[in-house]
Amino acid sequence: MEIAVTNLTKTFGSLRANDGLSLRFASGKIHGVLGENGAGKSTLMKLVSGFLQPDAGQLAFDGQPVRLRGPGDALQAGVGMVHQDPLDVPGFTALENLLCAAPRRAFPSRAMARTTLTTMAQRLGFTLAPDTPVGAMTVGQRQQLEIVRLLACGARTLILDEPTTGITAAQAHALFDALRQLAADGNTVLFVSHKLDEVAALCDTVSVLRTGQLVGEQLPMPQPQQRLLELMFGERIVQASGQALLLAGVSVSEPQGLPVVQPIQDERSSEASPTRPLVWQLEQVTAREGMVRLRNVDLRIPQGRVIGLAGLDGSGQQILLRLLAGRLHPDSGRILINGVDMTRARTRTYREAGIEYLPADRMRDGIVGALSLTDHFALLQPAGITVDRQVAAQAAREAIAAYEIKATPITPLIALSGGNQQRAMLALVPDACRGLACEQPTRGLDVASAQGIWQRLQARCATGCSVVFASADLDELMAYSDEILVFFAGEMSAPLPRATLTGARLAELIGGVGFERSAS
Amino acid sequence: MNQLAIDLGAVLAAAAPLIFATMGALLSERSGVINLSLDGTIMLGAMGGFTVALVTNSVPLGFGGAALIGAAIALILCILSLTLGQSQTAVGFVLALLGIELSSFLGAPVVRVPGPSVPFLPIPLLADLPIVGVVFFRHNLLIYLSFLLVPFIWWMLFHTRMGLTVRALGERPAAAFARGVPVTRMRYLMCILGGALVGIAGAAYSLDLRQGWSYRHTFGMGWIALAIVIFGGWRPWRVAFGCYLFAALEIVALRSQRTMAGVPTQVFQVAPFVLMILVLALVNLVSSPQALRRIASLPPTLRGPVAMLVSRLAVAAPAALGQRFERP
Amino acid sequence: MQIQDAGGQLTSRATYQLADLADYLARLVLPFLGALVLTTVVLLTVDVAPLDAYRILLFGAFSTPIRFGDMVMLASPLILCAGGLTLTFAAGLYNLGIEGQVVLGAIAAMIPLRLFPDLPPPLLWMLSFAFGAAGGMLWALLAASLRLGAGVNEIFAGLGLNFLASGIALYLILGPWRREGSASSSGTALLPRELWLPTVGSLRLAPLAPIIALVALVVVWWVLSRMRWGLEVRAVGLNGAAADRLGVPAVKRMAQAMAGCGLLAGLAGTLQVLGVFHQLIPNISSGVGLIGLLVVLLVLARPIWVLPVAVVFATFTVGSVQLPLTLGIDSSIAGVLQGALVLAALVSRGLMQRRRRA
What we know:
A: Rossmann fold, seven-stranded mixed beta sheet, ABC_transporter-like_ATP-bd (chain A)
């Protein structure tokens, strides 16, 4: 199936997410779509799969102009999209998911749906059991189920949005094999990624988007990496960094010519000096949350370190972060903060000891969207009957200047962009903070914002604060961590000095290849 | 023995309106819409149904009118919450109060006026069976329908494609949307169908169980029905069990008023409400994370059965209940 | 760069305020129009001249000093309830149990009156208010602990406790506190005259009632807008998880907001006993809690608006009392009008939000 878009435009407020794109994807091929965060890849894919409607421009499938009112229309026309977080129903079994709202012609009966599921899974090399609840499946399996469902419902074009995030290396391998097979059968595959090596390994052609515009159209693979990086990030940035190693997500230099952040500070990364006092000390800690259980963890984190937590979502890094922040109590073992036993202390005591927690979902549990920065600073004032609004407003003004937050002291935080919200959240961390546990500190931010966040985090480290962060972005982990802890299925590795790792090695460890739990 | 059979039959009859109301609420809540207006809807359905039946001298038309009233209130709820984005709780509460006041105002002329009711319809042959006949087959059509409604709703929700779609709407509307389901329109449909059943529940009071109309005739039954849906964990059979349990308590209260003179009647009148709160609290407490952790540390012989019991008791609301879906 | 930013922000704020003003007016006018249409339709179905009914509903309460007094005596507990509910509303809780809190307040207020009837009246009143406040608070904390401790939704916990509270009242009226001679479900014996709150002349208007209500309302306003506690409660109501992360003890604040609301509801119950009914009757709350909920759905967590709205609502209710006699229609049309107002306000709120988004 051939997909053609002509002059496609989509704006969100003042942001032109797709700006007059014209592009043609030939059938029977795997097409890579590259671009950094916010380049407009996802918007384009959602337009093609009916999740969004264009403001202007046309779509044509096999030369026929189409108007899609929703994803149902797209699927009927033969286009299906697999989302990064697969859109399935957790409470249903695999079979129920397949049947849910499927066209009757796809599965005339439940028994036939079962047969279709097993045969298609077998043909594509997937391991899917019809009666497993989706909630108990890994992200990789849920992705496989979605692919089977879309094909069974008549999709001849599959769109995959960053499909390798959160799945094992083996699953990625199986996925790639299946996609090649589908293309060979005459289907079209659109593969959205910001990972050059994956695109190189899989795709027949590649198109590159930057700030909503097409900068590279249907380039035949293989292409030199340097050229693709230039297309993705613009020539200036890539030349400034001079490293083809940086794939995406985090670039090394600030666009506005701000001083280059040194990701590795040699003096710090060399041997943790034993004289540095410890911020965190975990002794034989065992804890569980949901289905994941972390066992017998021993960990010492001295002042001024950056520790990255790597692993698939739900491998145990969230548990560790929540343990460190006092938001989850261990079933056994001891937790010492600044040398004081705080094993069963309340979150409040942790905060008083200078431990702060930055959650991934800012609007859900980070900040109060309807309140302003002034209100937030007022909340942080020492306890008293009334609040001093003047002092709070002054603190807000100072934070706005120091953290370059684009807001007034009285703007409700919900009206701010993601980067500004993240900087505001960081500005609200008191100076006295000794240990900062962050979950995905730069999720959803553009390159410049992400870098701004890391500048501030590193400035805090320079004053002796330690940062522990979980990230799904390998490049971020490699760029900023002094040491990395890899999590795999509820097991934690020993601290791995960053200098001893490469991105490829880290990816393998996350997938469980050569993984060794820390000796205890 | 015979008295027990008669009492059991009375319990089944007394639960019929609750069955209609809870199944209606269940339909709506499984699709993600919480209809808090139940008390007002039942009240207005009872008043409207009775008035229509009185004027037209037709019981079926009375039920039809009540169903329309219920559907109309649900429609208002949907417009305000699903389309205009107001809190389902706030809108439902206002509609509940408005329905009650409207029923008092519009129903004033028909207070204590004798009117038609659902005719008694023993099922030939079966009604003559010993015990079973008395319990199950000496009722009217409405009550037989209440027997059929529960398995029907269960079958619809768990054994049809329609049911899969409805449950997906309540669990993850984004997934339903991705499959081409018109989320908001389907929620309208389910909420309105559910509302119609709730309206019928009202008429079941005024045309059958508590024949006639008086000021605040069905006082409190809507809130009870909502609580029973939670108690039943949004599962049709368990919800039905809740309805019968509540009806049984009511019958016991009625009987003991005569036999146990020493106990103040108020105890029996409020007992079901207190019991409801206690059961809800208990169910929540045994399924809390702390309780689960405690169960995990039990000796293995105990752990299995206890965990099984708790998982049976535990209730999980439809994940998207009360949340508005906005298409991307 | 920064100056530009601030300037841009300023102009946008000015236009925002203008749009805000239009919104504000629309928000005030639209609900009234909507409610008027709905109520008129209802009135027409029973064949009553709507203008006659509206005249009585709107001005009936001001037709005689006695009726005006009644209106004030209804508005006072209503202000207490609605004021209390702004606290729980700010904390993000739907305190549907307020009716029971009023009833428990009334019951508790009776205790000192029955135990120490010989104390000097002013002392006894103070005791009675203290007991009433404590009773309402206790009932609210019960609902709060069911919600916060056992995860029972506060709506259902509150409703169940409402039924329980009226059961207790009925039990006391028919049982331990029954009238000498004949037990009657109509109420306990009337209090001795000297224990009634002093009134103005021969009116039923006890000046202490509106004074207490207004003082309480000012306190609520001050607490919510000026006190650190109020800011914390609002933060909890807007986003509990984030407030918790910022160091606000969320569960404690929710419980305290409930307790505060229960306290005010208990005072309302005490007023019902000392100033209005002078006895304990089964329907001692006369629905002020539920009307208070309607008031709060109109004014949201803004206590200053409680006063005018509560007065208007009380006017409707007191005016409606004359309807059965003069026009031969049921007085519940006042409730219809109140409900219709809130419903129409929700509609106009929804329409505004929709327009702003578009």
